[in-house]
Amino acid sequence: MSIDVETARRVAKLARIQVDEHDLPALAGELSNILGFMEQLNEVDVTGVEPMTSVTPMRLKRRADVVTDGNIQELVLKNAPDAREGFFAVPKVVE
């Protein structure tokens, strides 16, 4: 798939990237190369290949999915400029 300058301009706008007018042809070429590489990857037969997270076989570390408060309330409140009754004390903003 080939990307033209107008499409590159639109992609840059959607990505909120400022690209100078004279740099648009180079950007279009780079985007075309990326899409070409993706088309090459789609040609590879991956049936029977399991997804992996790393090139070395390893299991991700997991922890129990339980809700806790972290048991570090004193450490967190030690950094607060003003703490009362176990909470951050802040100035009143609504009258």
TrEMBL record:
It catalyses: L-aspartyl-tRNA(Asn) + L-glutamine + ATP + H2O = L-asparaginyl-tRNA(Asn) + L-glutamate + ADP + phosphate + 2 H(+); L-glutamyl-tRNA(Gln) + L-glutamine + ATP + H2O = L-glutaminyl-tRNA(Gln) + L-glutamate + ADP + phosphate + H(+). Its EC number is 6.3.5.-. The keyword ATP-binding applies. InterPro entries: Asp/Glu-ADT_sf_sub_c, GatC. SUPFAM superfamilies: Glu-tRNAGln amidotransferase C subunit (SSF141000). GO terms for molecular function: asparaginyl-tRNA synthase (glutamine-hydrolyzing) activity; ATP binding; glutaminyl-tRNA synthase (glutamine-hydrolyzing) activity; transferase activity. One of its GO terms (biological process) is translation. It holds the Pfam family GatC. Keywords: ATP-binding, Ligase, Nucleotide-binding, Protein biosynthesis, Transferase. The keyword Transferase applies. Heterotrimer of A, B and C subunits. Belongs to the GatC family. Allows the formation of correctly charged Asn-tRNA(Asn) or Gln-tRNA(Gln) through the transamidation of misacylated Asp-tRNA(Asn) or Glu-tRNA(Gln) in organisms which lack either or both of asparaginyl-tRNA or glutaminyl-tRNA synthetases. The reaction takes place in the presence of glutamine and ATP through an activated phospho-Asp-tRNA(Asn) or phospho-Glu-tRNA(Gln). This is Aspartyl/glutamyl-tRNA(Asn/Gln) amidotransferase subunit C. It comes from Gemmobacter aquatilis. The gene is gatC.
